[in-house]
Amino acid sequence: MKTAITYIHHNCFVLKKLSRTFLFDYPDDRFLTSKMREVVTNELRGSKAFIFASHSHQDHFNPKLMELANITSETTFILSEDIIKKHPRFGKVENCIIVKPSETHELENWKIKSFPSNDLGVAYLIQSEALTIYYGGDLAKWSWDDFSPQERRWMEERFQNTVETLAEHRIDIAFENTDPRLPNWAGAAEFIRTVKPNLFIPMHTFGELESLDRFIKELGPTESKIFQYRETGAQIDF
After folding, report:
1. How many CA atoms lie within 13 A of 54 on its CB side?
2. Per-residue pLDDT, 175
3. Backbone phi, then psi, for 137, in 5-degree steps?
4. Which of 21, 122, 164, 189 is the most buried (most CB within 10 A)?
5. pLDDT digits (tens, 9 = 90+) for 134-153
6. How far apart are CA 106 and CA 120, in angstroms?
7. In whole angstroms, how large is the CA radius of gyration of the chain?
């Protein structure tokens, strides 16, 4: 059965499977254009929606997220605990699952496992009998110039531990950071070669979509299919 993935912006994507719509990391209004809002509205309208937020950074979370429930037939929010600490009103929302690192939650026929991020919040492993999805949030191989050796080692170890765990699973679709500001692309190539997802979806580009050409060229041949989106609303079927 077809699964459709639509690019919105940065780390924000919509995934549709049968009558279910998954929305990931809908960002603050200052990152959104009218086209981005329109695409998200069209994808969510009248659907049964699962709305995920990996953490509270503005490029990943919109404080007006609850308003999206007005256009769906039914909505479940899956939010990292740091969001609730910063925005306590979300803790009172009906049908809201609050996720801490290293937890497992059941949602209909889906199992949601969380990994602790090496930045803020969590990453998600979302599994059903038919499909396994990994969504990385801000978990990546961050390697900034101002890191101390200890910070760099800790970042790399947490990333590597997660990658090795994921490699034990069959990952159908992986959303993972491919940050063009870093020479190592935030560990994206290492992730692809180790985890070997069937479909790899690069993210955390800040809209610099031309960088994906460079990443794919540097990556070289791979068993994984890469979603090379060119604009908001670009879609790929799995």
Report:
1. 33
2. 98
3. 55, -130
4. 122
5. 999 999 999 999 899 999 99
6. 23
7. 17
User: What pLDDT does 1 receive?
Assistant: 73
Both tokens of residue 102? Answer: 């290293």
The fraction of the chain above a pLDDT of 70, given in percent, is 100
Domains and CATH numbers, the chain: 3-237 (3.60.15.10)
Q: What are phi and psi of 138, to 5 degrees?
A: -105, 25
Residues 232 and 209: their CA atoms lie apart, in Å, by 10
Using CA atoms of 97, 103, 107, 109 in order, give the dihedral in degrees to the nearest 10: 170
* 62 neighbors 26 (Cβ within 8 angstroms): yes
Can you give the pTM of this predicted structure? 0.96
Sheet holding 132-135, edge to edge: 104-107, 110-116, 122-127, 132-135, 173-177, 199-203, 225-226
Task: Tokens for 183, please give them.
Answer: 């020479």
100-127 residue pLDDT tens: 999 999 998 999 999 999 999 999 999 9
What are the helix (H) ranges across the chain? 34-44, 81-86, 149-166, 188-195, 211-219
Q: CA-CA distance, 37 to 21, in Å (whole number)?
A: 16
88 membership: H or E segment, kind and range: none
